[in-house]
């Protein structure tokens, strides 16, 4: 599965930071983060609370546009090694320049430059989705939406929301999503991972998104599942992430198989891959084992992802062609 071409729609740039890269950067900056790794050099945590601490410690050394340039190169090299030909990554002006528009532009410039270099070297295409952080509240989200609207275009193609799904209500963020929509950005939102089906319903009604990050807990309400299928809402499903964080006890218990069978447009992504000890290859291998999925199913998932990508039509045509000729 490693070499088959893949499209990934749900990847947090900081969350994809390879452990070896973090160790190097921390050493350079004389920051001691040795406690977050196990003996094999991978991120170590026992539960969700500890995961959040490890995540924060691992991403703390990323403090400048130059760091984000190197980070982007490291992440894309890893993605390309697992067959990813097109990727959309969540970018947070909260972490890139503390929501200051001028600083955000500098971070964005560095990230785009790195993405261009990666595309020239490995053929992998990257696009950005500016993402506000739910537990930072609606006022911070407005500033993020302004950053997104000001830099919307052929590279920043989407707007989204991540963070603690139990904080606040989707409607608190409607202003930000309206602003992003008016700027021409396509919309996605994390929902139905930690909160149940009602969170997905509220998100669709109040934020009018066309994709849902995770969305897997829709399975607890089969009427909603049918509505998602009918409306063609695309789910950015991250099974390895859900299993690692205990949303589901194992791969066979994961609802992606049922959602697919009921006609929901599902796609597969890694979320924060090294933190969940996963890669796109690992996801495909585990799914193939758990649900007996063959190459035909994965081809369908990738075509769905390419069609749901927020990129320009010419870029989409290019990706679809690469998927077809594989
Ligand atoms: Zn996510």
TrEMBL record:
Top enzyme category: hydrolase
Co-factor(s): Zn(2+)
Enzyme Commission code(s) on record: 3.5.4.4
The keyword Magnesium is assigned to this record: no
InterPro entries reported in the protein's UniProt record: A_deaminase_dom (IPR001365), Ado/ade_deaminase (IPR006330), Metal_Hydrolase (IPR032466)
Keywords: Hydrolase, Metal-binding, Zinc
One Gene Ontology MF term: hydrolase activity
Pfam family, one: A_deaminase
Residue span(s) of domain Adenosine deaminase: 5-324
SUPFAM superfamilies noted in UniProt: Metallo-dependent hydrolases
KW Hydrolase (keyword) present: yes
Family: Belongs to the metallo-dependent hydrolases superfamily. Adenosine and AMP deaminases family.
UniProt protein name: Adenosine deaminase
